[in-house]
Design brief:
With 266 residues, the protein is of the alpha/beta class. It has helices spanning 19-28, 41-53, 74-84, 109-126, 144-154, 170-178, 195-204, 233-244, 248-263, and strands at residues 3-8, 31-38, 58-62, 92-98, 130-135, 161-164, 181-185, 209-211. Bound molecules: zinc ion. The site of zinc ion (ZN) has 5 residues, from loops.
Length: 266
C-alpha cells in the first residue's frame, strides 16, 4: 500500500524541531509522497528547497492563498510565473476565496476575487492544475464563497485540480466534479458533526477523492488537539474506506492514482 498526502505545510514552524523525524514517520506509515503547499511569496523558495532535500518524497506547489491576495501585483505575478515554469513545481496553489472573517479583521472580497481570476489565468498560461481553497463565512447558511468561486471558474480556462479541504454542500461537490475538479478530503471527515461530508464522500466515490492532511492544521479525530502530520493519512483513508464501503487497500490505490495523475508524478 502506498499513500500520498496531496496537501501539507511541512515548512510550518510547528515542524521546526523534528521535521526529519516526521518525514521518517510518514515513510514508515506508507505515506510515500507529500505535496508541500507554499501559500505566499516568502514560502516559494523554501518549499523548493525542502523538496530538493527530500527528493522523490516531497514535491512543491506554489501559490498565493486568498489571505495574501493583496500581495498579488505585476511583480509577484511575474515571479510566480518563473517559479511555475520550473518543472519541479507540480501545481499552482493554494488559491481561491476565504470568507471566514473575525469581526476585527474584515477581508476584502473584491481583492480576493480579482487575485483568484488572475491566478487562474496564470495556471492556464503555464498549463498547471490548480489547488483551490474555498472557505465559507462563519454564517452556516452562507455558501456565497462557493457560489462566487464557481462563477469565477465558469469564466476561466483551467486544466482541473483539487478543491482542497472540501466543506461545501452536496450540490457544491457535484458542481466541482462537473467543472473538472476532485475533492481533497482530510481529517475533518472523522469529526462527529460531519455527517453531511461523510454522505457526500459516499455518493461521490473514491474516483473523485484526494487524500490530504492540511497539516499542521486539522488533525484527524484520534489526534484532536495535537499537531497534524502526513503520517496520519492512513487514519483518514480508513475513515473514507468505512464511509464508502471499500477496503483500505482499494482506498489507497485509487486515491494515490488520482493524485499521481493530477500532479503528473512519475
Ligand atoms: Zn493548506
Amino acid at each position: 500500500m502506498e499513500f500520498i498526502d496531496s496537501h501539507a505545510h511541512l515548512n510550518d514552524p510547528a515542524f521546526d524541531s523534528d521535521r526529519q523525524e516526521v518525514i521518517e514517520q510518514c515513510l514508515k506509515a506508507d505515506v510515500k509522497r507529500i505535496a508541500e503547499i507554499a501559500c505566499e511569496i516568502e514560502e516559494w523558495q523554501p518549499a523548493i528547497e525542502l523538496s530538493r532535500k527530500y527528493k522523490g518524497i516531497i514535491f512543491p506547489v506554489c501559490g498565493i492563498h486568498p489571505d495574501y491576495a493583496a500581495t498579488l501585483n505585476e511583480k509577484s505575478l511575474n515571479d510566480l510565473e518563473q517559479y511555475l515554469l520550473n518543472p519541479e513545481v507540480k501545481a499552482l496553489g493554494e488559491i481561491g476565496l476565504d470568507y471566514n472573517e473575525y469581526d476585527d479583521q474584515p477581508k476584502d472580497r473584491e481583492v480576493q476575487k480579482q487575485a483568484f481570476a488572475a491566478l487562474l489565468k496564470l495556471a492556464a498560461k503555464v498549463n498547471l492544475p490548480v489547488i483551490l481553497h474555498c472557505r465559507k463565512s462563519r454564517d452556516p447558511q452562507d455558501f456565497s464563497a462557493y457560489e462566487d468561486m464557481f462563477s469565477i471558474l465558469k469564466n476561466a480556462v483551467y486544466t482541473g485540480g483539487i478543491m482542497h479541504c472540501f466543506s461545501g454542500r452536496e450540490q457544491d461537490a457535484f458542481k466541482a466534479l462537473d467543472m473538472g475538479f476532485k475533492l481533497g478530503i482530510n481529517g475533518i471527515i472523522g469529526y462527529k458533526k460531519n455527517d453531511d461530508l461523510r454522505q457526500i464522500v459516499k455518493k461521490v466515490g473514491l474516483k473523485y477523492i484526494h487524500l490530504e492532511t492540511d497539516c499542521p492544521y486539522l488533525p484527524p479525530q484520534s489526534k484532536r488537539g495535537q499537531r497534524n502530520s502526513p503520517a496520519y493519512i492512513p487514519e483518514i483513508a480508513q475513515t473514507i474506506a468505512e464511509v464508502t464501503g471499500e477496503t483500505l487497500s482499494k482506498t489507497a490505490d485509487l486515491t494515490t492514482q488520482n493524485t499521481i495523475e493530477l500532479y503528473r508524478l512519475k
